[in-house]
Amino acid sequence: MLPIAMLGGILFHNLIEVIAFVAPYLIFVMLLITFCKVKPHEFRVTRLSGALILVQILGSVLAYLALLPFNRELAEGAFICIFCPTATAAPVITGMLGGSIPRLATFSIVSNVSVAVLAPVLFSLMGSKADITFFESLATIATRVVPMIILPLFTAFAMLRYMPKVHSKIASHQSISFYIWSVSLFIVVGRAVSFIMAEPSEMIPEMLWLAGISLVACCAQFYIGRRIGRRCGDKIAGAQGLGQKNTVLAIWMALTYLHPIASVAPAAYVAWQNIINSCQLWKKRNRI
């Protein structure tokens, strides 16, 4: 289903904007269903969160500094692919793969809040030309990301307390999240394809370099996250926490703070991370 969803997004990208408005609602429902599997006491910051956030922040800075002498746009593309926070849908995929949803959800909050606080500082040091203050940037990122995670989380906890039968019913139908995610993937891939095709043709060579850098960044983060996760007791949560990114937010940050062409890297990251996720889900299904 996932390759079909991605292919559909590519073929019908011109029609995506008609239904794109439903994407946030789909993510909300996915997370609500996923969070109904866990209890409030299971959410706590662990050694895994600390290790992953360290790689996310330091890794992005080191990648930027390493590529800056060669090409600024490529350096910015690498930076945003690593600095970008964990995707809001990452707990859903983690649950499907058998990882710890509370661990990943906790890190997702840590990751997104850290980016909301550090983004204005780092982009200013990188020489951002964006006419936006620290607090404006903080508020913009926070309002785009935090409610998407917090609202379904508290809704699930409220249902556990006040509507336990409904909560139990939702918790027992986790497979619905997979189909909702497939629709979300159709929309996200379609929007990414439309975005890339809107770039001028003379930028194709640089766009290919950016796509290649995003592929390396994606594979490296899934691998490093899995290695860290194995040491901390959950290789799936580690891999998804570091490798699965909020690419919509990354594209917005690149367009706002960096050279516009750098946003091609997170747009290409959409394909790479979902190909990896599709392969992981396929392997797990066949193993079962």
UniProtKB/TrEMBL annotation:
Gene3D superfamilies: 1.20.1530.20. The chain crosses the membrane at residues 12-36, 48-71, 77-97, 104-125, 145-164, 176-196, 208-225. Keywords: Membrane, Transmembrane, Transmembrane helix. It comes from the Bacteria. This is Transporter. It comes from Duncaniella freteri.
